[in-house]
């Protein structure tokens, strides 16, 4: 059993976002065999019940208030411009988090420090620096983060914002390359992201001396998984007409994708299926999303809903119109769990094992995406095939109880050397004691 210090940027409960779902089930898996202390940033809407739930299987939970404001964002931008640090990293420099870590590290040593997402890299490195006994470092990267602003820049029309996205992408790419090299093991959720940041070593027929001299950390690919038992298939109403997007509306790729779909794709759908309606569900929608119903027919913006099941019961198509992002979209896995047919762009479904036409429909251009949505709306047999195929895929490939044993392999590899060292130290102590008696 290892003592694990688990660091998260979002409190991993309730399970209402992909990042929370990932961290939650990894925590559940590690807590089976390890002593896990969770230190997590918390927001105003995080409640004591969620902290108590996490404490039911973690040894301890330490919430740290996340401080966000326009002033802090401005300071982060200035620091980024002066130092080259990514804005999203500078923005999350919170002194209280460092103070909590100092206190915990002063009490007892940890065998492993586990950083959940790139935003917690700085704190994992800080913990190693402050530790009396150097811990192993694990990073659950979730994605190659620099690809998010890089892709956002491709579709941004505002010249200044496009330049800022490109600058942030360059800063993040450099930050990730330098910081990741200091970890002992990095876990990605898709092979695409691992290949993006860690290319295979060159063959002897085409050597690259600069790369071959670089020491790379061990890496693994473990997908984001869910609990199908906790998400039964939703009983749908007869002849559902809703097309739904469900996702946090403060994440820029979701906002950009939804606006693009509403303006460029949805009018083509509703012209052909007049009784269809587009429902956008997600926390903190910006004004650009809230105002969509004013200019686009049959669009409804709900904001956050605690229980999406009534909406899912009326949903014919779950749409994922992303044109930027990294990692994998848990919203697709969730929709498969619920038994809702999914239509997505290629980027939206990136990194997920899917069968186009069997578990999902994929299209990238407005006309093709509209055609895919209309096909599902008008063909119940196709919808049923996608429902059945998606649910089967989750049960076979994305059930955490089946897959997350791979985390045990990661940790066994990290802690075995430490166990051997302790065993050797004990043996040496016995030898010294015998010599002393002699």
Q: Which key phrases capture this entry?
A:
globular; six-stranded parallel sheet; alpha/beta; 13 strands; seven-stranded parallel sheet; 19 helices; 438 residues; 15% strand
Structure notes:
This protein is an alpha/beta fold and 438 residues long. It is 50% helix and 15% strand. The chain has 19 helices and 13 strands. The chain has helices at 18-31, 48-55, 70-83, 87-91, 95-107, 121-130, 147-155, 159-180, 191-197, 209-212, 252-272, 287-290, 292-295, 309-313, 330-338, 366-378, 380-397, 400-403, 405-437, and strands at 3-8, 35-42, 60-65, 112-116, 136-140, 185-188, 218-221, 242-246, 277-281, 299-303, 315-320, 342-344, 361-362. A seven-stranded parallel sheet has the order 3-2-1-4-5-6-7, sandwiched between helices. Helix 2 (48-55) links the parallel strand 2 and strand 3. Residues 200-214 and 424-430 have low confidence and may be disordered.
C-alpha termini separation: 35 Å
- The fraction of residues assigned to DSSP E strands is 5-15%
The helix tally amounts to 19
Regarding quaternary structure, how should these chains be classified? single chain
What class would the helix/strand composition place it in? alpha/beta
Report the count of strand segments.
13
Mean pLDDT: 91
Helical residues, percent: 40-55%
Low-confidence stretches: 200-214, 424-430
Shape: globular
Largest sheet: 7 strands, parallel
Strand order of the largest sheet: 3-2-1-4-5-6-7
Radius of gyration: 24 Å
């Amino acid at each position: 059993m290892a003592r694990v210090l688990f660091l998260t940027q979002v409190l991993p409960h309730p399970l209402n976002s992909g990042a929370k779902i990932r961290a939650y089930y990894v925590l559940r898996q590690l807590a089976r065999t390890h002593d896990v202390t969770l230190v997590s940033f918390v927001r105003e809407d995080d409640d004591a019940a969620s902290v108590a739930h996490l404490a039911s299987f973690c040894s301890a939970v330490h919430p740290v208030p996340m401080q966000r404001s326009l002033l802090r964002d401005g300071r982060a931008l200035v620091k980024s411009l002066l130092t080259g640090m990514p804005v999203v990293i500078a923005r999350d420099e919170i002194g209280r988090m460092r103070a909590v870590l100092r206190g915990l590290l002063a009490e007892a040593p940890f065998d492993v420090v586990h950083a959940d997402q790139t935003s917690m890299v700085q704190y994992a490195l800080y913990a190693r620096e402050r530790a009396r006994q150097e811990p192993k470092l694990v990073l659950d990267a979730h994605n190659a983060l620099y690809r998010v602003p890089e892709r956002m820049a491709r579709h941004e029309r505002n010249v200044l914002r496009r330049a800022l996205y490109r600058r942030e992408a360059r800063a993040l790419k450099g930050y990730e390359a330098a910081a990741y090299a200091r970890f002992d093991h990095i876990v990605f959720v898709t092979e695409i992201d691992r290949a993006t940041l860690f290319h295979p070593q060159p063959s002897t027929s085409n050597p690259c001396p600069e790369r071959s001299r670089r020491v790379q950390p061990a890496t693994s690919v473990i997908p984001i998984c869910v609990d199908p038992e906790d998400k039964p298939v939703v009983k749908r109403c007869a002849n559902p007409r809703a097309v739904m997007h469900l996702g946090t509306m403060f994440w820029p790729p979701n906002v950009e994708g939804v606006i693009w779909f509403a303006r460029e794709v949805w009018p083509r759908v509703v012209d052909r299926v007049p009784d269809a309606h587009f429902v956008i569900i997600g926390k903190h929608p910006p004004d650009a999303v809230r105002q969509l119903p004013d200019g686009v027919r049959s669009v409804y913006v709900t904001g956050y809903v605690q229980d999406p099941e009534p909406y899912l019961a009326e949903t014919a198509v779950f749409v994922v119109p992303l044109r930027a992002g990294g990692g994998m979209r848990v919203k697709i896995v969730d929709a498969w769990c619920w038994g809702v047919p999914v239509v997505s762009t290629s980027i939206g479904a990136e990194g997920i094992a899917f069968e186009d036409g069997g578990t999902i429909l994929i299209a990238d251009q407005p006309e093709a995406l509209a055609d895919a949505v209309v096909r599902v709306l008008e063909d119940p047999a196709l919808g049923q095939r996608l429902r059945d195929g998606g649910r089967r895929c989750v049960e076979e490939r994305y059930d955490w109880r089946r897959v997350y044993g791979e985390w045990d392999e990661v940790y066994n590899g990290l802690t075995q050397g430490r166990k051997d060292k302790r065993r050797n130290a004990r043996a040496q102590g016995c030898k010294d004691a015998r010599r002393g008696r002699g």
